[in-house]
Amino acid sequence: MIIRKLFTLFLGAAFCTSINAQKSKEYYTSISQGDKEIQIISKAAHLIPSTRQFRWQQLELTAFFHFGINTFTNREWGLGNEDPALFNPTKLDANQWVRVAKEAGFKQVILTTKHHDGFCLWPTNTTNYSVKNSPWKKGNGDVVREVADACKKQNMGFGIYLSPWDRNSTLYGTDDYNNFFVNQLTELLTNYGRIDEVWFDGANGEGANGKKQRYDFKHWYEVIRKLQPTAVIAVMGPDVRWVGTETGYGRETEWSVVPINNLDQVSIASNSQQEATYNPQGDMTGNELGSRDKIINAKGLVWYPAETDVSIRPGWFYHKDENDKVKTPEKLLDIYFHSVGRNSVLLMNIPPDKEGLINDADIKNLRRWKKLRDSIFNNNLSKGAIITSDNGIHPQALIDQNYTTYWTTKGKDTTAVIQLNFKNKKTINILMLQENILVGQRIEKFRLEYFNGKEWLIATEGTTVGYKRLLQFDAIATNKVRLKILSSRSNPTLSEIGLYYKQIRSQ
Ligand code: FUL
Ligand code: CA
Q1: 60 C-alpha vs ligand 1 centroid, how far in Å?
Q2: How confident is the model at residue 11 (pLDDT cuts 50, 70, 90)?
Q3: Which atom belonging to ligand 1 lies closest to the Cα atom of 112?
């Protein structure tokens, strides 16, 4: 089941002025009334990610673990009145969860520490509705601790999901709930070491007393910035944007710079890093959020990159009758092409089962998916090419497998041609491009052409690139290809070009 977000996403942003080399650069900007289109486009082209956003973007693959009382009741949304006695995983092994994720290539995991039912996976002091009152480890267990420790041990990032909607708490719907929530956040952000991502869902239903809650996001962001300044806040948060679907398929044209319309809300939080947060409203689910026609009418612009969340199964929680509905390795590969390959981070849910283990059905498909990716991406056919570019500098940087070295045009040229010649013919059907987003996201249109011995023909073409763009096309055998940058918001940059061959096309 795909659960649609029942809310209008709102966007926030935060910037940092006091850390690292990005000092003089910005990740949001205002647009003045007198700004002409050319100035607005230039402003968009020069925004860059914050340090925490850049770290997160490079992860490419993050995993979700949906686990809780629902795992034992076979539900997707608990009611909040389920008996804690039901929570009793007999073989819970967080090291297995993290190992499975790591072996599949994930770099970070996010645990549902509390879902909408309100049941806490750690022995919180804020409520009795937690593992403390379950039979698991006689009430002495702490799932958050076990996953956090497994991540530390296996050198994986660790993030938390904490549902603002709480169907159990009697405080829900009153001002006191916001403080209760801050106390829960504080426990999670102070007792478990470094937290790399805090994931807020937007669901805002009724609580136990039939009331709805006004969430005090601003206060929550301040608490997170203060306690875990390196954590990104997603997706009801200022650092990471929900891509707008839960299918695993992101947008074809995906700009990380999007309009922001109420910069007047900026406020400086009182912490050592002088963080600002602001909460502009706006629908973030449209087709093209950051294209020219969208940004020229904006009041401001912000770096706000997309995260694509999807479950490996139909549901977010484990259900035995979905063991034969785990997404196939080919489907997972297709999702990879359309999420990571579309300038987004993929957040894939792998729900542990009732025993407290990742099920064999999921493990099998994850392994085969990793194998498929390796069989393609371990063999970059652009390696060893003779690479030239008339109006460009550093063409060698395109194939040195180092993200921070990059090619760009001489002067202010916004179009360019990069040619790769091979000694022997190569058969290719995948193009990979990476823009250097530490400079900005700029490319608006590109085309890959190949020489068939007589003439140049089109292999594939696309719009945005961003951190990573992957395109598949019908296989061609050639000894010459050229990449044409047809339009860019400023001088284009590219960190890497990859060419690959995949044996069978995914459906
Ligand atoms: C949704 C929730 O309602 C689902 O249960 C799940 O947690 C998903 C990631 O977000 O909005
Ligand atoms: Ca490079």
Answers
A1: 21
A2: very low
A3: 7
